[in-house]
Structure formats: structure tokens, C-alpha cells
């Protein structure tokens, strides 16, 4: 993202054209650098404090922490930095070799993170010592042919330091005493991590996390039912009573041969500002889930008229700058008359998002749910798309020559330069001699989409207006 995201401004010198273009090029380089970061997988048995240690290393509270085992279930990738080196850190669920059921799935995620990582950090509870599970994990790690570092966590004071010596028995070398809670020893551990990580990841083996999908909509529209249908099992509690889901529910779902992270959210009844009690916190968490997602599926009840709540949810996704897919649920309940009526409602109510792809599904019968994966990929590809500056300006010059901006205040503004200053969402910056009306911006966006696509992604168009230079004072005679 750039600082111009969603904000208009002014310019005074043509050198700013090159500055914006250079900034866009730097963003491309940063994206490529981020994709090429070495990967550290953080593994260990349940409740040894992996997520607490991850938060300490990141310097911020990212991973969910609770004093019970099994809170983390999926592998989650975070960007980390130490001593000028950037790397990707993958937090995993508690690893118990030979586990079955849900715990087996969690272990499988941890094993996948390990096999795609460049180095592995095994976290052990120093207050408990090496357990049979720890020893089993070590046997698997030895076969991985990856550098393995041993972190003796929960060494919160000097008295526990001596207990770490017993961990030499695991055969992984020196145990690094740390306290994820207080930060003790984390710097020394990170020095060892940087030394163990290669400069670049192994080619073709990157632990890239699954794309994040927020499943949003008003209450009782069928979000949890759709999630369960996609997952092929009961991941979320479903009831005909509206408001069954309160907290966002994360689930890794394999769809069309690809792993996705779906977040089922509470239904949004009203604006966050006017909600109260549990409803307020549910709305707040839903907004946070949208902000943390890359693409949102807005689920709409095809059997009922589009409501103000539906439109508010769509607006929330667009305002957050996230890619968007519209899914009309309960299609099995829609007859021919309702389909005709729905088409009119869509044309009238969803005029703001004509670029969003629509899928007619039934969470109950499973109708067309597999069509969601291709539409998600299309939306995300658009969200990541960038148009080169030369190509963008060549197209825009032809467009403006054919249809110039409307005259404003007796003067016709000219667009002198344009660049795509950002992605996620795609953001265009137009340098003009005067203000461009909202209607003309929408015209540019519409033609831009016709030429370059961007199906499923919002496109923001910002205008920088040239500052008027103060007139020089007349010289006195």
C-alpha cells in the first residue's frame, strides 16, 4: 500500500511524476523480495508457548494466545525482521506424531510447514523438560535434513536456567533459553536463527500460507452451512436461530486442489457504531476479519429481497479495499418469478459493484459451491494486478483525447500523467491541472476495466491537482 491510498492531493512539480513511479517500482521490488524470503517453521507439542514466542519475535500481538492447549490449529505465516534480515515465520499448531482426527490434521499442517521451511525452530517447555512427545518430534526432525534450533521456552527467571541443560539429551545441540512471555533471551535466539537461515529460500519450496477468505453476510444467511459444505464436515455450529456464530471461526479448506483459509464470521445486523453488547463485539470482530482477509465472499439470501444490511456488508468489503465475490445462497428455493425479480434488485441495489463476479449456490444441497474457487482466484489475481506506467499512459491519452473531462469553472482540466501507485487494492494516481468530477472518474474506471480487466477487485482512482503558484507581487515604480 502507498500513502496515496484512498486520498486525493496536490502536486506542484513534474518531478513528482517520477517520484510516484519510482515508489511504485519500489513496491514491486518489495513484493518480489517478500516472496523470496527464507522461511522459519516454529513447531513443538501443544501448549509449549509457540504463539507467545512468535508474538515476542514479531514485536506485536499477531498470533492468538490462550493458556489452554490447541488454540493454534493451522499454520500461519508472518513477516519478521532481525538485524536487517527479513524472513517469514510460520506458526503451527501443537504437533503430536501419530495423532488422529482433528489433532492429526493439525499435526499434518505442522509437518507440511516443516518440509517447506528453510530452518525449523523446535520449542520445548523448559519447566517440564523433554517429554516422550518431544523425543518423537525430534526423530521426525532429524529425517528432514533441515537446520533445527532448539528453544527452551518459559525460562522466566534465572532459577530455571539450569533446567535447560537437561535438554542437551535431545541431540539437537545447544538449547537456547528464552521467555516468550518476558522476552528473555529472544535476541540471542534470533541471532542463531539468522545464522541458520540461508540468504534465499530453496527454489520451489516456500511455505506460502493459504489465501485468506472472509465469509460475511447478514445473520442467518447460511455462512456456517456453506463453510461446513465446503469443508465436508461440521466445522461451524449451525442453527436456524440467527446469531449462532459470534467469534470468527478459522478453517483450512481444500477447494479445487488448493488450500484456503476460510473465516466464518458473525452476521452483521447494524453499524458497528450503533451495536451494543455481544453484538458490538461480534461486529467489531467481523470488521477485523474483513481487514485481515484478502478476499471476501459476501453471502446473500437469494430467496429474500436484498436488504440494507446486505448492501452495508458489501460496502464494508469495498471500503476495506478487499477483493469481492458475491454468492447468492439458497438458490434451490428460487423459482422463475423470484429470479426475474432478483435480477432487477441486483441492477438497482448492487450498482456499486458491477465488477464483482456472482455465483448462485446452495449450502444445503452443495449446488455450484465448487465454482467459488475459480472466482476467488480471478478476484485475487485482479487484486494483485499491475499495469505498467507506459501502457497506462498510452491508453489514458487516447481515452481523454476521445472523451475529455467536462469543463469546470470555465476551464477544462488536463490529465498530464498517470501511474498505478499500488495494488491490494489497485490504486491509480492521475496528475491533473484541475479537479476531476466523480462521474468522470467512474467513467475512467469503467473504461479501465474494459481494457485491463480487474474483475472481482475494487479499483481506486485518486487525483492530484496542480497547486496554483502565487502571483509575483508587482514591482513598485
From TrEMBL:
Gene Ontology MF term list: GTP binding; ribosome binding
Function recorded in the entry: GTPase that plays an essential role in the late steps of ribosome biogenesis.
NCBIfam families reported in the protein's UniProt record: GTPase_EngA, PRK03003.1, small_GTP
Domain EngA-type G: 38-201, 211-384
Entry keyword set: GTP-binding, Nucleotide-binding, Repeat, Ribosome biogenesis
Family: Belongs to the TRAFAC class TrmE-Era-EngA-EngB-Septin-like GTPase superfamily. EngA (Der) GTPase family.
Residue sites binding GTP 1 per the record: 44-51, 91-95, 153-156
Pfam families hit by this protein: KH_dom-like, MMR_HSR1
Binding site for GTP 2: 217-224, 264-268, 329-332
SUPFAM superfamilies hit by this protein: P-loop containing nucleoside triphosphate hydrolases
A GO BP entry: ribosome biogenesis
Annotated organism of origin: Amycolatopsis arida
Matching InterPro entries: AAA+_ATPase, G_ENGA, GTP-bd, GTPase_Der, KH_dom-like, KH_dom-like_a/b, P-loop_NTPase, Small_GTP-bd
Lineage, top ranks: Bacteria, Bacillati, Actinomycetota, Actinomycetes, Pseudonocardiales
Protein known as: GTPase Der
Assembly, per entry: Associates with the 50S ribosomal subunit.
